[in-house]
Amino acid sequence: MHISEGVLSWPVLAGGAVLAVAGTAIGLKKIDYDRIMSVAILAATFFIASLIHVPIGPSSAHLILGGLLGVILGWAAFPAILVGLALQAVLFQYGGLTVLGVNCFDMAAPAVLCHYLFRPMLRRGAGSRFAGAFACGFLAMLLSATLTAAALALSGDEFVEAAQVLFIAHLPIMAVEGVITGFAYSFLSKVKPEVLGC
């Protein structure tokens, strides 16, 4: 899901940077400092999960756990994802610094949206919790893949086919992401509900 350096047009890069800065500023302002450890742990979880790439045809796919970060952290998902992406760019050359804003927005904005869409559903019984967490993980990955494909397509006609391949490659990952998010959220709600803000 990382877009590499030198691919996107300057208007797309600038737009992504502005949106990522705005989201990160809101996220930093809304962080409850009593929960800063949860933000750090989830940023590390995102960092590790998105390092594991599975080759699919000419592309590769990986988990991002955006739904899990979004439903637990809300707006704080922006700074958590930004830190994870920055470390991946510097340490492993995944993505890059000029595309950091676009990559951050593509992953964090769906996470925040899912927080608001599914948070009420996650406060109900166990079955509803799993279904809500699954939907959160699935939709976050769907929207992230859509935004990433749109960023590629907006950068030139030569990237439209690559955008389509990227989106199709992530279709199976959406279901996997939903299942992992469902089980992770259900498990945390039983053993550590304070992490979820329950």
Would you mind describing this structure in some detail?
The radius of gyration is 16 Å and the shape is globular. The mean pLDDT is 86. Helix 5 packs antiparallel against helix 6 (126-154). It has helices at residues 10-30, 36-49, 66-73, 77-92, 100-122, 126-154, 160-169, 171-191, and strands at 54-56, 59-61. It has a two-stranded antiparallel sheet. It is mainly alpha-helical and 198 residues long. Helices cover 72% and strands 3% of the residues. It has one domain (10-196): Arp2/3 complex 21 kDa subunit ARPC3 (Orthogonal Bundle). The protein contains 8 helices and 2 strands, in the order ααββαααααα.
The main sheet orders its strands as 1-2
Question: SSE order, as H and E?
Answer: HHEEHHHHHH
* Uncertain parts: none
Cα separation of the termini: 31 Å
What's the overall average pLDDT, rounded? 86
Counting DSSP E segments of at least 2 residues, the number of strands comes to 2
Please tally the helical runs, counting DSSP H or I stretches of 4 or more residues: 8
CATH architectural label: Orthogonal Bundle
- The protein's oligomeric status is single chain
Q: Would you state the CATH class? A: Mainly Alpha
Helicity, in percent? over 70%
Q: Which class do the helix and strand fractions yield?
A: mainly alpha
Using the CA coordinates, give the radius of gyration.
16 Å
> What is the approximate shape?
globular
CATH fold-level assignment: Arp2/3 complex 21 kDa subunit ARPC3
Major sheet, described briefly? 2 strands, antiparallel
| Percent in strands | under 5%
Question: How many domain units?
Answer: 1
Membrane topology: Multi-pass membrane protein
Main location: membrane
Pfam family, one: CbiM
Organism: Pseudodesulfovibrio hydrargyri
